[in-house]
Amino acid sequence: MSDAERTLQLVDPARLGTWMDEQELPGSGEPVHSRFVTGGASNELFEVTRGGERWALRRPPAKVPDGRNETMLREYRIIEALADTDVPHARAVACCDDPDVIGANFYLMSFVDGWSPISEPEWPEPFLSDLGARRGLAMELVDAIARLSRVDWR
CA 134 to CA 27: how far, in whole Å? Predict the structure, then answer.
């Protein structure tokens, strides 16, 4: 299945747009555009744009495994709980607990440009040629994990 086919199967732009209007998200009434970013056995990630705004939509695959809709809600609550912390994270935008909207529970968060070492076989620049940049990236990761460890999970 092509990325475009996957996107059309999993993100109905009209239904998503109606839901976004109900949530009073920017771009009311404007068309919704989406693009498959990455996914597989666990969950799917799409870039969604509307009215000059850009979000990431995360949802289960087409055949929703048992418990996965609840997992989406839990993931959203965790991201939302990080809002007033110094932990680097995408901002929680909105969550849908009605699988009838696009076939599964899903949530929107701010879109963060990046890359995935799992889906991209080669490091992008400057990390490909600059080992110091790789070290810096590793240190940022360690710093983020340390910040996360200080969050009161209760």
Answer: 38
User: Count of CB atoms within 10 A of residue 46's CB?
Assistant: 25
Q: How far apart are CA 151 and CA 119, in angstroms?
A: 30
Q: pLDDT tens digits for 106-131?
A: 999 999 998 877 777 899 999 999 99
**What's the pTM value of the predicted model, to 2 decimals?**
0.90
Neighbour count for residue 121 (Cβ, 10 Å): 6
Give the integer Cα–Cα distance in Å for 97 and 139: 36
DSSP E strands, 72-131: 92-96, 106-110
User: Is 129 buried (19+), middle (13-18) or exposed (0-12) by CB count in 10 A?
Assistant: exposed
